Amino acid sequence: MTDFFKGIAPIRHEGPETANEFAFRHYNPDEIVLGKRMEDHLRFAVAYWHSFAWPGGDPFGGQTFDRPWFGDTMDLARMKADVAFEMFDILGQPFYCFHDADVRPEGATFAESKRNLDEIVDYLGQKQEAHKARLLWGTANLFSHRRFMAGAATNPDPDVYAYAAATVKANMDATHRLGGQNYVLWGGREGYETLLNTDLKAERQHAGRFLQQVVEYKHKIGFKGAILIEPKPQEPSKHQYDYDVATVYGFLVEFGLEKEVKVNIEQGHAILAGHSFEHEIALAASLGIFGSIDMNRNDYQSGWDTDQFPNNHAEKALAFYEILRAGGYTTGGTNFDAKLRRQSLDAEDLILAHVGGMDTCARALKCAAALLESGELEAARKARYAGWDTPAAKAMLVGTLEQAAARVTAEGIEPEPRSGRQERLENLWNRYL
Predict the structure, then answer these.
(1) For the residues 229-245, what does the mean pLDDT come to?
(2) Among 221, 241, 243, 216, which Cα is nearest to 232's?
């Protein structure tokens, strides 16, 4: 045991009226929602990087957090794991996620870094045996070190491609050993700053082959989890190859991977791409590639990815509606890819940020479930498209353009616009919030 969270008891559900800030108001893991325990719906995970590795810097200032486990030794890496699992226990978190660089110190060589990773994976395995939390997904940090400044799989230097392959292989092995339910590829710097020094065709081909190799290796080692890509626009590269769900799907189809790879969708990235969170989820579900989500929010005045904890259940409810409508998670979950504000220094802040985020998601889930169970929105949607249920309408989709056009003169069709009833449906939605 460490003393970082000393005096903080496990968080319990006390209901909406409690005045205890160290209690859940809406998140009750055993509450049944649509026939399933709330914990099993939400599948919460803590992000190792923001909660335990991030020093509190921003583009204009350095470290503000002073954590006792900060440093580049294996002893401190083990202390970090001790603190992490203590926090998982306090929150009752069923899952966590990590990059390799979050859990082990960087070595002077790749071999040393891998030895460090292997050693800490053994330690994490021991922690999992003694605690509730399990690995939702692992991933590799292919963006922080200067070697990846021009990308990983898309780097013009083939030696960097090889180094990225070795790094991903090591992390897939680590994820597999820990029983991870997914493996995520976050593109990081898989993009470009200027066309003046970029071969777009070559970089796209290299990225596609790299992903094919990842899938091939997954099957070789018998990893049963999902391979996920996390779409991200603009940041850190000016043009990212994995810009949004639609872009990723086109990429997967091009390289024959649409049945093998799904997406991990982040709220903040969806907004940066000019979409809503629920749009990206609904599109992924309709394409058959929805996998998991990173839960956070942006500061809409800043215009960049601020990774704040969610605090607005109304904003998240439509996202959970689309998740429920799609049948819920399989191997995925709700990962808090969110970090404290750099002025929030205390251990209590880290706990309360997650408590608030979990309550926000639980409240959003219950709103979404109530509307879905009522059937009102789906009935309205079905009614709007009811005309397509007629034999004549169905025939148009299997016939020719000429046959569809012939209906206009043969039946004297003169379409009259029909209301989309948006405001009525918005009012309906608000009644469930």
Answers:
(1) 91
(2) 243
Annotated binding residue at 216?
Answer: no
φ, ψ (nearest 5 deg) of residue 181? -95, -10
Residue 230 annotated as part of some ligand binding site: yes
Count Cα atoms within 13 angstroms, Cβ side, for 368: 26
> Is residue 157 a known part of a binding site?
no
As a whole number of angstroms, the distance between CA 351 and CA 51 comes to: 10
Domain boundaries for CATH 3.20.20.150 within the chain = 12-374
Q: What's residue 159's pLDDT? A: 98
Mean of pLDDT over the chain: 97
Is 258 part of any known ligand binding site?
no
Class of domain 12-374: alpha beta
- The percent of residues above 90 in pLDDT, for the chain, comes to 96
307 carries a ligand binding annotation: yes
CA distance linking residue 57 with residue 60, whole number of Å? 8
Q: Of 121, 1, 24, 234, which is closest to residue 113 (Cα–Cα)?
A: 121
Active site residues: 99, 102
Residue 219 Cα distances to 172, 182, 196, 344, 353, angstroms: 11, 13, 39, 43, 38
Q: Provide mean pLDDT across the span 112-137.
A: 98
